[in-house]
Amino acid sequence: MHAIVHNLIHIAVVLIAPPLLVGVINKVKAFFAGRTGPPLLQPYYDIIKLFQKGSVISETTTWVFLAGPPIALSTAILVSLLIPAAGSAAPISFEGDLILAAYLLGLGRFFTALAAMDTGSSFEGMGASREVTFACLAEPAFFLGLATTAKLTGSLSLSGMFGPELASHWSSAGASLALVFVGWFIVALAENSRIPFDDPNTHLELTMIHEVMVLDHGGPALGMILYGASIKLFVFAALLVRLATPIATRLPIVDWLIFGVGILGVAALIGVIESATARLRLSHIPVLLVAACLLCGFGLILLAR
Amino acid sequence: MGVDAHPAGWFMSISLVLWGAATVGLSGVPGLFSSAERMSGQRLGAILAVLGCALGTAGVVEYWRSGATASIVAPWRIPEGEFAVELDGLSAFFLVPVFLIPLLGSIYGLEYWKQTERRRNGRKLRLFYGISTAAMALLVVARNGLLFLAAWETMALSAYFLVTTEDDDPEAREAGWIYLVSAHFSTLCLFAMFGLMRATTGSFAMESIGSGAITPGMKGMIFALALVGFGLKAGLAPLHVWLPGAHAIAPSHVSALMSGVILKMGVYGFIRTATLLPSVSVGWGAVVLAAGAISGIVGVVYAIGQHDLKRLLAYHSVENIGIIYMGIGLALIGRSIGRFDCVVLGLGGALLHVWNHAIFKSLLFLSAGSTIRATHTREIDRLGGLLKATPATGACFLAGSAAICGLPPLNGFISELLIYLGLFRISTGERAASFAPAAAGAAALATIGALAAACFVKAFAAVFLGSPRSHEGSHAREAPAAMLIPMIILVCMCFMIGLAPVSVAAPLDRATDRWIGAAVRDRGRLLDFAPLDRVGAAAIALFVVASIVGTLLVYRVKRTASRASTWGCGYVNATPRMQYTASSFASPLVGLFARMYRIRTVRPEVSPVFPRRASFESETSDLVLDGVVLPVFRFTAWVFSFARLTQRGSIQAYLFYILIFLLILLAWR
After folding, report:
1. H/E/C letters for each residue in B617-638?
2. Using CB atoms, which residue from A67, A119, A136 is nearest to B451?
3. Which residues from chain A sit within 8 angstroms of residue B424, using beta carbons?
């Protein structure tokens, strides 16, 4: 009974909460810029509005163009059911689910890039090319981090790796976990197209990565993309929160509270970083991603003794 | 054929396999006696090939059903040779692609390489297509070293004739020549290897060597020779030099056979040798794992730089062979440190990837063949927008692309998952010696997966999406049914293994039995270590969720959407030539790995005032072939040019040489 309630809450949270993260980031950025900024719930209004709008579809495109957004959204939803949220295990959890999660995100990326290429626009081609290039560097960092937590906890499922078991290792292998946290934070920024990798608010298509890939999508398709992107952001934030606070108290309410505060904290931190730093030159992005790989790699090496 | 030793052996699994192999082997013969102008010979040949492959597959199914290892031993007149064949789990596993791909390839060939259109070489192609299939079937059941070598050489030589099908093309002759040289170098290593095994055991019988019967030095030598000899055939980088050229130039259903099955014979040989040898040290396992990882990265990085569709696919074979070797390396490590879960997962993943690669790579080559037939070009940057003209071929290529990138819910994901699980399991272990290679292996596999996805976004998008870039691309027509049906069957298989992975557990357990031994088998089977049922359920869930969300979108969009041209960021006169090309798409990645290529670029000089027509060209070449192998060959040719001094052309001189040689031999004794 307890597990069912927990799973229902989990599903509700991962489906409803994600756009709020984007709202928090925008609020923090507005605060730093001295503006009032859009309402906290603006991302919800945007998505609802987009679902009600019509759209214009390019004559060049085929069904692949329409397949991109639903696949990206459904893979994100499925991944959000694999990651542990508060205290208890995720609704879907089995040995090796970490690999499924990583490859589901890969599937979403694959079809988003294909949908972009389907328009025949060189701007979208550029975006797709950058997206898949940077993914090649982010992926090993992500897996090295996973190997670190897997080695510490001896578990091969995300719920085990980021469960209460991990908490005891913060005292013995804190350095490793801290390195992985920083490495993964960089990966999260890259995967979710945040500054310093990509500026979602830039006005020049030539410098964009993710935004330029979805230039031709509009209406419900764009709504799906925005919603899927926010779920993906939520997934990475949740992993970071569970990595930093892998605790489970007896009280589920306290667990959810800690988790919620953590998630909002990550969003606020992203907002601060976006306010304080500028976007990197595209040619410098690989350097930062390689640094993330090295951080996670060092985290792993520290465990070898 | 072998004399049946058992009275009731006609329906025994091994006899069915041998009869099937014989039928396929003869499938090209009727064509030789029928008119080159008519289709009748080809039709009869295709019927024979399908019949033979079905017989062989029936043998495999009969083996799985009965579960009894079947063997036939008959005398053979070659000294020390013996016609010893046996069907065990490993052989049965490899026989599946051996019979499946030629079956589909023969049907595909009915339209793709029609006798009436290819009068010059159609009959030759079909003859050697059948012979190579029969040789491979014999190869995987052979249990005598000499029989193995005979089958190996038959396969290698018939593959040479397949590569040079269009022998009037200089490019085909050169690719065939490079292939022939490396095939023989590979056979040479195998001769040495079997010689060493003969020296150890006293016979050419392929039987397990006990750990007491062999010195560590000898074991290492045999292992190294197997790694190089079989690695050359499998196309393990840096021994892959023959592969891209041969696969690109051969007709597409031959490329499917070569990439899908012939390469796997190298993998089979290596696994079989490792089965015969006693457990090797952790170091050797790490070497194989590293060789696999390097091959995987080299293969996919070179693939990204290609402009030629089939050459790109060929380099992906190097990558996938790398993944297979990573699994084998993992299993070797597991065996030497006594982690049987890692043996089950590593070897299981490697073997399943053998099937998967045979399925999706054949699918990709066949759909590439349809594309080439429709457009008459292999140049990716001249194509585009083909999904509208050839929707079925395009959908098949897309399914193959997703499968080869290891994306769920397709088959490639399952085999990569098994290897990942094994790597993670070892890296959570205590021993540092096995922990480091395993963790590095997991990161390498992740990189390979992401690079492969990048490469196939490029390939599929440039060929099938957007608008046609050239005249060739805009007049394409969909392939006929004989070509589409084999492709659709392969797509179904990709989905079947991806959505119901539990179905492959039993054949995999049979195939890994010999490595694990009955004693420890009770400790666990594949399903005990890999939650394939959950993975299958998750794949189905993905399918369902994506269909629901997709239907929702289509429903909304169909009612409201209007059509217009692509948003050009303000520019309204965009032409198909302004689309992002495959080369531009790959350029950031090529730049990241620039040290691994030789990049040749021809940049135009643009004069500022009155610019003339300018063109830009770039080409990436293989560092191993163009940087190492060819220079070494040129140097060797130069050294041996001095031997020409002795070639006087007069018979007296040659008689004189013989006399001197005989005198030396006499003095020796």
Report:
1. EEEEEEHHHHHHHHHHHHHHHH
2. A136
3. 96, 146-147, 150, 156
**Per-domain boundaries in chain A:** 2-301
Whether B366 maps to a domain, the answer reads yes
| pLDDT tens track for A2-41 | 788 889 999 999 999 999 999 999 999 999 999 999 999 9
Task: Please answer whether residues A14 and A234 qualify as being in contact, where contact means their C-beta atoms are separated by less than 8 angstroms.
Answer: yes
Total number of domains constituting chain B? 1
Q: What's residue B644's pLDDT? A: 83
% of chain B residues with pLDDT over 90: 62
Strand boundaries in B473-616, DSSP class E: 562-564, 597-602
In this predicted structure, the answer to whether residue B7 has a pLDDT above a threshold of 70 is: no
pLDDT in tens, B255-272: 999 999 999 999 999 999
Q: Do A120 and B541 touch (CB under 8 A)?
A: no
Helix (H, G, I), strand (E, B) or coil at B144: strand
Reported as a single tens digit per residue, the pLDDT across B115-126 is 989 888 899 999
- Position B622 pLDDT exceeds 70: yes
For residue B1, the model assigns a pLDDT of 38
pLDDT at B433 over 80: no
Contact B566 A128 (CB under 8 A): no
In a domain, B461, yes or no: yes
Structural domain boundaries, residue B507: 338-530
Does residue B343 lie within any of the structural domains?
yes
